[in-house]
Write a structure and sequence with these properties.
The protein is α/β, with parallel strands linked by helices and 164 residues long. Helix content is 37%, strand content 25%. Strands 1-2-3-4-5-6-7-8 form an eight-stranded mixed beta sheet.
Amino acid sequence: MQELYADEKWTSEKTEGGSTLFIAASRQEDGARDPDVYASDKMMAIILAKETGKDVFLLPERSPFRNPDCFFDGGTMELKHVRGGRNKVGKNAMEALKQSPNVFLFIDKNIPVDSCISKIAGSIQICRRSLAEKGKHFLEPPKDARLYLYTEGKLYEGTWADVL
């Protein structure tokens, strides 16, 4: 990962799960301009690393990719902090797909995982219908792309096949 960002300096922090969070220096600098967003992204990256035992790289805000938040387990991943009710789960999942096919949603309300999956599936159906009415096609996420949900204090590890 660090080879893709040869000019970037990285700091590292060990997590409770034995993995490491690597943070691009420019990400930290950009975080000073919006500390709430940076703190949220860092918190989600730490949870992802801790819960999976795998290293997470918080990428620079200006990235050669579609601008995902992190690199994790061999691929890019978008992190979204879901604030609000059940309807926000589907909306945030759809927004995250614009950045990366792999998505991690941190849901700050205690919403059961089955309900979260149902809301995401419903949002996909609405998007498909809306685009079809306009003569456009919905670009499906790869069925094997990862969909992680952190809700009720637990990590659900799934794929988009679970909601498609």
